[in-house]
Write a structure and sequence with these properties.
The chain is 35% helix and 28% strand. The chain is of the alpha/beta class. It binds nicotinamide-adenine-dinucleotide.
Length: 373
């Protein structure tokens, strides 16, 4: 592609499952006129670059992010490998989008936040559920329309199958269900209750399925998180639904109780059923099913060359924002840091059996993704 003034050059770091979505969406975006792919695995980078018609591919992350053809950077590496490419991206001062969770430790998160602040980078974290219609509308009703009054508390529950859980743990062994999937709901609660600061977590966890397969992770975790305004949320998660259960992402419930209303979201996906004698395959892992709950893939789906769903809408919103100044409510780095602190506190409370104070540090009060609300 020839570079045009006012157009955008994008680098996608990490040519895996989500990086592939981001790269395909970038290649199709009208404002993007340069696309570079980087991956530590040369063949992954080269294959994706060929598939999407990228201008260049490389294994050298430092070089590609510094290139004058690149204006914005997407970091789609595994959870355990966000920090290093992220620091390289931030050093360039270019707007950056990183996959959730921000990092897996508060030390790394603080290093990343300090670098972003020093370089003045608009760093966003891809908690894509904010771009699912059902959650965005719920949040709008809660915060902007005050439809349920003051939030008192609620519950969030999300399950993955064992097959998906093992795929996550294979790429990032410390990405527990709390840090990797429940984190979406901790982010949503922070977004829906922007003035409530998380202060304490209590939790219990157990089970032996994942441990019997060599993972140092419990199967189920049940937690309560208290906020400084008296709000209480009940949170539950697991990677241990049977592998053949017909979801290719999360099965979830989200419920918020207020002083004058309630919001109940059922995302168990039983509303869209496919039964196929020929077999169906579109899972996060390589599986063939007869029965499938379509629409359960967390990132969204491609159909007829178009991507539908949350990652598509999130990526387009981010690219629109950087080409045309469109609205953006992707999680800020400060919000993601608070979410990480909550999930780490839940895992620690479950491991120790004791209440854990939450070190939210820089909270979402400082830097909000939706300042106009
Ligand atoms: N928003 C969503 O809906 C959603 C859904 C699933 C996963 N995710 C997140 O996306 C991220 C990536 O998940 P995935 O399923 O695409 O993983 P993946 O394993 O499929 O792909 C990761 C790629 O990154 C490459 N890589 C590893 N370390 C690297 C480094 N230091 N520099 C450059 N490349 C590197 C790997 O070689 C691999 O090709 C995770 O943080 C995950 O939590 C988001």
């Amino acid at each position: 592609m020839e570079r045009l003034a006012g157009r955008l050059g994008v680098a996608v770091i990490g040519a895996g499952k989500i990086g592939r979505h981001r790269a395909r969406l970038s290649a199709a975006h009208a404002g993007v006129d340069h696309l570079a792919i980087a991956d530590v695995n040369a063949s992954a980078a080269e294959t994706l670059a060929a598939e999407v018609g990228a201008d260049t591919w490389t294994t050298k992350v430092d070089e590609v992010v510094a290139s004058s053809d690149v204006d914005v950077i997407i970091v789609s590496t595994p959870e355990r490998a966000h920090t290093e490419p992220l620091l390289a991206a931030l050093a360039t001062g270019k707007p950056t989008l990183v996959e959730k969770p921000l990092t897996l430790t508060l030390e790394d998160a603080d290093m990343v936040l300090a670098e972003a602040a020093e370089r003045g980078v608009d760093l966003r974290v891809g908690y894509s559920m904010r771009y699912a219609q059902r959650y965005a509308v719920a949040r709008d009703q809660i915060v902007n329309h005050r439809s349920i009054g003051d939030v008192i508390g609620g519950t969030a529950r999300c399950y993955d199958t064992l097959a998906i859980g093992e795929a996550i743990l294979a790429r990032s062994p410390t990405a527990t269900p709390v840090k990797d999937i429940l984190t979406y709901f901790v982010d949503l609660i922070g977004w829906c209750c922007p003035d409530a600061r998380p202060v304490e977590a209590v939790a219990r966890s157990g089970g032996s399925i994942l441990r019997s397969k060599g993972h140092d992770v419990d199967d189920v975790t049940f937690a309560l998180v208290a906020y400084d305004d008296g709000t209480v949320f009940n949170l539950a998660t697991s990677y241990s639904l049977p592998s053949g259960y017909p979801i290719s992402g999360m099965a979830a419930r989200f419920e918020v109780l207020g002083t004058s209303g309630v919001l109940l979201i059922d995302e168990d996906h039983g509303d869209q059923v496919l039964y196929s004698d020929a077999g169906y395959s579109n899972a996060y892992v390589d599986q063939q099913w007869n029965l499938a709950y379509l629409g359960s893939r967390t990132s969204g789906e491609w159909a007829g060359g178009t991507m539908f769903g949350r990652v598509a809408d999130e990526t387009r919103a981010w690219l629109d924002h950087h080409t045309m100044g469109g609205p953006l409510h992707i999680t800020t780095a400060a919000e993601a840091r608070t979410t990480l602190a909550v999930t780490l506190a839940i895992d620690e409370a479950a491991a120790t059996g004791r209440p854990v104070e939450i070190c939210a540090g820089r909270s979402q009060h400082g830097e909000r993704s939706t300042p106009d609300d």
